[in-house]
Amino acid sequence: MKYSFAALAAASVLAAPAQASLAEQVDAVFAASTTWFVNLIFANLPGTGVPWIVGWLVAGAVVFTLYFGFIQFRAFGHALQIVRGKYSDPKDAGEVSPFQALTAALSGTVGLGNIAGVAVAVSIGGAGATFWMILAGLLGMASKFTECTLGVKYRNEYPDGTVSGGPMYYIKKGFAERGLPLGGFMAVMFSIFCVLGSLGGGNMFQANQAASQVSSVLGVPTWITGLVLSGIVFLVIVGGIKSIARVTEKVVPFMGGGYFIVGMAILILNWDMIGWAFSEIIRGAFTDSGIVGGMVGAIIQGFRRAAFSNEAGIGSAAIAHSAVRTKEPISEGFVSLLEPFIDTVIICTMTALVIIITQQLLIDANTGMYILGENGRIANVDGVGAGVPLTSAAFGSAFGWAPYALALAVFLFAFSTMITWSYYGMKAWTYMFGEGEGKELAFKLIFCFFIFVGAVTSLDAVIDFSDAALFSMAIFNIIALYFLMPIVKRELNSYLQRLKSGQIKAYK
């Protein structure tokens, strides 16, 4: 199969000129037929600049936070104990450890949004957007707890030791258990959008951005990056979730830790500016700092970035966490609530702080207000575009070699996102078409082919449609969570009582 894929990729390279024309035609067809759907999903709430889908995700996070009594704060310490394996029984069903499940799910969320998305957020919403981004990340921890608990509770366990789980399973089984209608229909709709999202936002967009960054910094042609990425990803995902988990448990700490260390080094070098940076964050969060929309503009950008970054409420992470070795669904819910904390509260905040503290955003010395460019975004020192270039300029202002390290980080972030989203897409695929090695291999080949296509072309309309499909997953998932959260609460109360009585014992 490796030779078949290589031949397919080589044929694509040889046909590149013709393919460019075909790509433009495909993009035009998508733009004509799907723009209405994209506009519908990302439409703003009346009278605001807030996409309704962001409001949908944040509202769900607030409801789950209140319903479970701020579980993200009460269970934080216990979650760390579970990740360390203190309560892991090696005889439990499942395929990966709690730590591996956490890193696999994190690799799906920690991506370009942490580098490029945060830069866009602060370039529009100013430093104050950071405060609201952190708040939204903390609220999103409750959404992850709810969906990942259900993912383990209603997963399928097979005789060979493999498992399949995720929203499509708990929607169908949970609704049937509660005597609710439309569970099967909602599960299929979630699966369709999950497959589409995995091929676009979880694949083509990542490949395109990684290939572009490597090309701009190192001069490597995009088709070579695409071919290399396709091959490496295939070698990893062909081994299933165990292979993916073995890679992510090494890559995620390396890339996340490395990014954090470089960011911390910049903060330490500018330690005298840290107090000023936090005062700017608080000032911008509650007053008009001159950005478009004032304080409301900062709130919108912060909530939007957090919702788009950590995927809390979308349901994707529940698929990875369902593969964990445990007989306690609640324990994996606890582990999963660490994801928005790491993704948004730590990594996204680090990016924002580096941009603020290196003073990339221009401020009028007389008024203290941000200076806006013609596009309504805050002007920056180097006049570069928002996204990766702004973050790269911030890191480069401290270390000359930082842009090269950032290019490596972009490549690794994109790679890790793709291998995890291949698993999400495959599980949704096999839910609809049935389990089996042949059906799994077919999806993996399709997935790797789209990596190459994403690297060498810019199918903007296709990717926009895929992004809309990805966030459409949240519509069905959060509706299901509202109906099924009493089941989670019952599981939570039972778990806490047994933990207190000593029935749930530590193994380390």
From TrEMBL:
Topology relative to the membrane, per the entry? Multi-pass membrane protein
**Membrane spanning segments where?**
49-70, 180-200, 220-239, 251-269, 281-300, 341-363, 401-424, 445-463, 469-488
Q: Which UniProt keywords apply?
A: Cell inner membrane, Cell membrane, Membrane, Signal, Symport, Transmembrane, Transmembrane helix, Transport
One GO cellular component term of this record is: plasma membrane
Q: Principal place where this protein is found?
A: membrane
Its signal peptide is 1-20
Q: Which GO terms describe its molecular function?
A: amino acid:sodium symporter activity
Name where it's found: Cell inner membrane; Cell membrane
Q: Does Translocase count among this protein's keywords?
A: no
Transmembrane helix listed as a keyword: yes
Q: Looking at the Swiss-Prot or TrEMBL record, what is one Pfam family this protein matches?
A: Na_Ala_symp
PANTHER family linked: AGSS FAMILY TRANSPORTER, SODIUM-ALANINE, TRANSCRIPTIONAL REGULATOR, LRP FAMILY
Task: Give the protein family.
Answer: Belongs to the alanine or glycine:cation symporter (AGCS) (TC 2.A.25) family.
Task: Quote the protein name from its UniProt record.
Answer: AGCS family alanine or glycine:cation symporter
Taxonomic lineage is: Bacteria, Pseudomonadati, Pseudomonadota, Alphaproteobacteria, Rhodobacterales
